[in-house]
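Structure tokens please, single chain.
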Amino acid sequence: MKVSNIIDRVTLLYNDMDYVRLSKHQYLEFLDDAINTLITMRPDVWVKTEVVKLQPGIRQTLPDEAYSLIDIYCNATKEEDGTFTYGEPIFQVERRDLDYFSDWRRAEASDVVYEFIYDRKTPRQFLVNPPVAKDKDVYIEMAYSAPYVSFADMQEDVAMQQDLELVGNYCGPLVDYMLYLAYSTDSTSSNDRQIAQQYMQSFYQALGQEYNASVIAMPKIDELPTNIGEAQPTND
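Here you go.
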């Protein structure tokens, strides 16, 4: 779906297809705001996968553009031609488990990490185990959420032809949020303010329904029986 498709739907519902009430640039700004609000609430809709270099020690910081960490996959080795080969997997663990079972913070530094710790209360930081060696270049492959491209910074005709590359179909929520902004901007009456709130409620409701549907449709992994190797009951 292109940007123009979203803008056309909004201007139709806002009765402003000739851009009299608001300019095209304002609608593009509203779209930027709507997308970044969506990413804040659902970081998984705009995910960047990248190989990053770690800093010495256990405490690490996400790339400057990142909102929050989605996942860390594996170690990576940088080749002479600038490409990367991928190595040992990296698993997420709980800090309290490491603290309880080991003195991991003072472990010997390494050029390979095996575990990472992430806390949503500090969304731009994460910890790795074992600590990264000072004299080694250690790379990992990670996925993180980041700000979306700003359509308002582009030439209007160019921006209108851009594709929306969000993961999933979020046309409805984006339109709702843009209409909330439009009616909030032009709130010359209590009726406009009421309509704005209705669109805001519709935005949150649509996100909730989409999330519930995605959880239901998410692939499930069957758990292994507790007593593996023992004879399982039959229906005979």
